Amino acid sequence: MELDWQRPDPLEGDDPNEPYLEVAAGPDGRIYMRESRDPDNIVVTTQAKWEAFLKGVKAGEFDDFAEEPPRETEHGAS
Hints:
Blueprint: E1 21-25, E2 31-35, E3 38-45, H1 47-58, E4 72-73, E5 76-77
Antiparallel strand pairs: 1-2, 2-3, 4-5
């Protein structure tokens, strides 16, 4: 099955060698996910579970898992 893998554009300053998540919607209605460093290892989920996950991301339910970069002050990095 040929999938159309999608990924976000890197943000300015991102390391292009860092891994990223790719997502594809299959013709069978399921959602396929893989990491760029291991493209043969594919995780499959349902459309309903994917939509619930996206809703949680938008609501900030997973913010505790994200690392915040150090903030710079007027006198340099803190």
